[in-house]
């Protein structure tokens, strides 16, 4: 089937964890300090997705080899075939996100149809700083373990916006199955791939609106939602609500342009419509809903 334009809204939260460390800031969580806003790069989100689809058995271009990081040149040399057809047929992440490769002095550039903006927190975020001690010493002569710093957010509800370009999808041979795999990754990748610094993150809401054509773009869905904090300085998902009136209105006013709306909504995230708590299915009942299992 022909891939049309899609738009994505994705919310997940982070509690006492580091969603995206900044190497220029001693690996502190990325922040807009003027706004007290936690930031997460699109590359961090794509890394979760790549790792998930690779674990599902799909080959990808951007990955480790034998559990070791390698250069792009090394990955290219390891490919069985460097033709465009083979690359797009076999490397799922290139079909999704694109890639730039230098093959025999020839630059191959695939512009990915699936792109995300940087994510940002809907709430003001405080950082937690603590000292950590390793059991291992810095040298054989040292008698004590090394001491370092550990930086985490106290609580951050992070929102991403994304698009799928129907025109670019045609050029990278993106498949419907790739989008279903993306849906699955958005629901399961973050909790399933948790590390020590990433445990404590859970997906709360995902919407992928599939439009009827390759022209429709309604805009960043984050502009149409509002976080209501039910207590000062929220520390948990049950201490806030998401007001979705404007998003529901936007999609309902454009429902003739919508083919399907793929979604999952965590029951712990309280959704508010017309001042009342509602289930996702009730709020968007006038749209063609398809739940991500």
From TrEMBL:
One of its GO terms (biological process) is maintenance of CRISPR repeat elements. Signal peptide: none annotated. Pfam families: Cas_Cas7. InterPro entries: Cas7_Csh2/Csh2, CRISPR-assoc_prot_Cas7/Csh2. NCBIfam families: cas_Csh2, cas_CT1132. This is CRISPR-associated protein, Csh2 family. The lineage of its organism: Bacteria, Bacillati, Bacillota, Tissierellia, Tissierellales.
């Amino acid at each position: 089937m022909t891939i049309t334009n899609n738009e994505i809204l994705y919310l997940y939260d982070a509690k006492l964890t580091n969603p995206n460390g900044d190497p220029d800031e001693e690996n502190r969580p990325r922040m807009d300090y003027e706004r007290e806003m936690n930031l997460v790069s699109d590359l961090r989100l794509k890394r979760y997705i790549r790792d998930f689809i690779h674990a599902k058995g799909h080959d990808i271009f951007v990955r480790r080899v034998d559990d070791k990081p390698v250069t792009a040149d090394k990955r290219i040399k390891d490919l069985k075939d460097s033709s465009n057809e083979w690359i797009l047929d076999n490397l799922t992440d290139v079909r999704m996100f694109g890639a730039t490769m230098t093959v025999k002095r020839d630059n191959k550039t695939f512009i990915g149809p699936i792109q995300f903006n940087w994510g940002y927190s809907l709430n003001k975020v405080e950082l937690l700083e603590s000292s950590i001690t390793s059991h291992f010493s810095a040298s054989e002569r040292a008698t004590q373990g090394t001491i370092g710093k550990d930086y985490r957010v106290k609580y951050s509800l992070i929102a991403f916006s994304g698009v799928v370009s129907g025109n670019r999808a045609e050029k990278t041979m993106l498949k419907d199955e790739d989008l279903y795999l993306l849906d699955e990754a958005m629901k399961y990748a973050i909790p399933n791939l948790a590390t020590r610094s990433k445990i404590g993150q859970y997906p709360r809401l995902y919407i992928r609106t599939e439009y009827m054509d390759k022209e429709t773009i309604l805009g960043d869905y984050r502009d149409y939602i509002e976080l209501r904090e039910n207590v000062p300085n929220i520390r948990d998902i049950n201490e806030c609500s998401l007001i979705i009136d404007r998003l529901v209105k936007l999609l309902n006013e454009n429902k003739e342009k919508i083919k399907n709306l793929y979604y999952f909504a965590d029951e712990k995230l309280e959704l508010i419509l017309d001042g009342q708590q509602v289930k996702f299915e009730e709020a968007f009942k006038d749209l063609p809903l398809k739940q991500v299992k």
